[in-house]
Amino acid sequence: MYKLQQLAQLVGGRIHGDSALEIEAVRPLEAAQPGDLTLAEGRKNRERLESCPASAVIVPPGVTFPTKTLLEVARPKLAFAQILEYVHRTPFRAQGISPLSAVGKDCRIPPEVSIYPFASLGERVTIGLRVTVFSGVRIGDGCAIGDDVVLHPNVVLYPGVRLGNRVVIHGGTVIGADGFGYVFDGSRQVKIPQTGTVVIDDDVEIGANSCVDRGTFGPTVIEKGVKLDNHVHIAHNCRVGSNTIMVAQVGISGSVSIGRNCIFAGHSGVVDHVTIGDDVKVMMKSGVSKDVPPKSSVSGQPAMDHRQAMRIESITRRLPEIYEEWKQLKKRMKEGGS
Hints:
Layout: E1 2-3, H1 4-11, E2 14-16, E3 22-23, E4 25-26, E5 36-39, H2 43-47, E6 56-59, E7 69-72, H3 76-87, E8 96-97, E9 102-103, E10 113-115, E11 120-121, E12 126-127, E13 131-133, E14 138-139, E15 144-145, E16 150-151, E17 156-157, E18 162-163, E19 168-169, E20 174-175, E21 182-184, E22 189-191, E23 197-200, E24 205-206, E25 211-212, E26 219-222, E27 227-228, E28 233-234, E29 239-240, E30 245-246, E31 251-252, E32 257-258, E33 263-264, E34 269-270, E35 275-276, E36 281-282, E37 287-288, E38 297-299, E39 304-305, H4 306-317, H5 319-337
Parallel strand pairs: 4-5, 5-6, 6-7, 8-10, 9-11, 10-13, 11-14, 12-15, 13-16, 14-17, 15-18, 16-19, 17-20, 18-23, 19-24, 20-25, 23-26, 24-27, 25-28, 26-29, 27-30, 28-31, 29-32, 30-33, 31-34, 32-35, 33-36, 34-37, 36-38
Antiparallel strand pairs: 1-3, 2-7, 21-22, 38-39
């Protein structure tokens, strides 16, 4: 259990009600039970508080509810996430190196690690403190891994990949496979050797079954705090700016430069050699084919300013009606001319 006062201090919140309240769990509004802390951010959720049995509720400033203990914070959803992380954190406990794992020559591995059965490490691998390598992981020759990294089952790191601190990579993801580069000589596709690597900075999390390809020359770079969903593909020689988020099925072609704090919605894509500025939002299923300036929102195929795309979409939906009006007008003009 956790004292509500303890959780309030964690997120810098203010309690209205019983600060000594003991919290058993943190759950969403529809699943909350007595003893739970929940979140009521939007107006509709706050209207449901009367029937919610939760003992305490995270709310924005200005909300009152006499029968509930309230934890008031400036950003309720952020506080909810921080408290969830705190409550569900799992302290690291080193399991050591399993005798059923395979470790190559000249590796540097501290004792404070957990390397599970059937993990495989190549030669000259460097691993930091409190690293967890689950079963089925393959780490290639010469890889360097920072502190507090978690590699979930069946992750593959090709040779020479570098991971920063607190990186989390989920199952089935491949980091450092060859970039997709070929030249047609008139009779067959000639492969361009991919001689670079991948560098992933601190606090990056990559979902399951995603791919980040190595550079043709030099590295593909994923900067600090980037979050990639499942089934995301980053091609060779891209640079993804810090704190950028990409939702499932995003595809980024080769040599694309992406700024900081961008958001790519599901199934969006970018053609090669495009530069995207900071704080850009790319809407769902958009196809970016040219450079995008900072602080833009784009949508459509090809992607354009989101407001312009919405105007075009609005007119497109009216095309059948506009066509009928045009036919009637054409008919009247023809009748008037005769």
